[in-house]
Design a protein that fits this description.
This protein has helices at 2-13, 19-26, 33-48, 90-102, 119-135, 152-159, 184-196, 213-226, 252-265, 277-280, 285-288, 308-317; strands at 51-61, 107-112, 140-144, 163-165, 200-202, 205-207, 230-235, 270-273, 294-296, 321-322. The protein is an alpha/beta fold and 396 residues long. Helix 3 packs across helix 9, helix 4 (90-102) crosses helix 5 and helix 8 packs parallel to helix 9 (252-265).
């Protein structure tokens, strides 16, 4: 396919895709799927070899959030039966992190529900970062605490944080449909604050919330403009008790096309398969490793993931290897690791809002056909009942 040959060449040279090309990836047929995976896999292997970076989540504070994000089980008004608890003490968080590191994780992601941290919260998290690093000097620590105020990113960096996660989630045009208590611009501002403080920016999306192909392309192009070092791709986990609890819009094939599109648009960036891979990719998970170079190990914030041992076996069986602490994640031209930024980013940037697929321009070129609705697999959605906040051992 001429399109795929062109996209591989662009990916190897870090040349930007057009929106029409990105839409075309999402519009490919199931008959073409393995060709799409093989093509994007060439780009993935060129920049990242067969390494898979493992990340481990620690939910520092669960539930009780005043924001109304429709996808989130911790949101205001959620009736989901999730674990709810206030801040973990630094030693509790460090113990939880140790379980993930023992399973092979290279990065620990410290997450707390809420609109954003108070200065006292930043002090708590800073103490936790120090406790984890005192026990594991080489670990990367990423904080995810919501919207940041001036000076907070710098304080986290001084405490030893390597990265900060704040996802854009969906396109600017549709953001108001999933959240009303803060804006898309607020999220962009927090990613920019992390950049400015010298933290490695981590920002991604959630697919499966009823968005169009154009929305997916728009958010990925917006991410490319922000130039994060890592892009987590979440697949909505429809949780009963949330407004999106009955949204089953994904198939394994569509998930693979989305990951391929992200890889082509951001060829030299850490693309991470995040929440929902077990629910939506299911037995196709090993194919996704040919597209993404990073996954979460074990459980998520409020739901259970695949067993950590099964994750490691899947990686080995698919012919990949776990990235070690002595290996550098990012290509040399991006600085190799946390906190190193380059103006060129994921290929050279296009002008924001220009070209096919821009909502700002009104009409859309190359709109793909409506995606098939996936089968509801509520049997695969399990609320987390182990690990932090419980007396049971974590899944790592």
């Amino acid at each position: 396919m001429d399109l795929l040959n062109t996209l591989v060449d662009k990916g190897l040279r870090r040349e930007p895709l057009s929106r029409a090309e990105a839409l075309a990836v999402l519009g490919t047929s199931d008959d073409e799927l393995l060709d799409v995976v093989a093509a994007a896999g060439k780009v993935r292997r060129h920049w990242f070899g067969r390494r898979v970076k493992l990340n481990y989540l620690v939910n520092l504070k669960s539930g009780l959030c005043p924001e109304d994000c429709s996808y989130c089980s911790q949101r205001l008004g959620s009736t989901a039966g999730i674990l709810k608890y206030t801040w973990l003490k630094p030693d509790e968080a460090s113990k939880a992190a140790a379980a993930g590191l023992a399973g092979g994780a290279k990065r620990v992601c410290l997450v707390a529900s809420g609109r954003g941290p108070t200065d006292r919260d930043v002090d708590r998290v800073s103490d936790t970062i120090k406790a984890i690093k005192n026990q594991n000097e080489d670990v990367e620590v990423c904080a995810c605490l919501g919207l940041l105020s001036d000076g907070q990113a710098e304080r986290l960096r001084e405490a030893g944080a390597d990265a900060y996660n704040h996802n854009l989630n969906t396109s600017e045009a549709t953001y108001g449909e999933i959240t009303t208590t803060h804006t898309y611009a607020d999220r962009v501002d927090t990613v920019q604050k992390a950049h400015a403080a010298g933290l490695s920016a981590c920002s991604g999306l959630i697919a499966g919330m009823g968005e169009t192909d154009e929305d997916l392309v728009d958010v990925v192009f917006s991410l490319r403009e922000l130039d994060p070092d890592s892009v987590p791709v979440n697949f909505l986990i429809p949780i009963e008790g949330t407004p999106l609890g009955k949204e089953w819009n994904l198939t394994p094939q569509r998930c693979l096309r989305i990951l391929a599109m992200v890889r082509f648009v951001c060829p030299d960036v850490e693309v991470r398969i995040a929440g929902g891979r077990e629910v939506h990719l299911r037995t196709m998970q090993p194919l996704a490793l040919h597209l993404a170079n990073s996954i979460f190990l074990g459980d998520y914030l409020t739901t259970e993931g695949q067993g950590g041992k099964a994750d490691l076996e899947m990686i080995a069986d698919a012919g990949f290897e776990v990235e070690g602490t002595g290996q550098v994640t990012l290509p040399e031209h991006r600085g190799g690791g946390c906190g190193a930024q380059e103006s060129a980013g994921c290929g050279s940037h296009e002008t924001a809002g220009a070209g096919c697929g821009s909502h700002a321009g009104g009409g859309v070129c190359g709109s793909a056909a409506e995606a098939p609705v996936g089968e509801a697999r509520t049997d695969l959605v399990a609320v987390r009942r182990r690990g932090v906040g419980t007396d049971l051992a974590p899944n790592a």
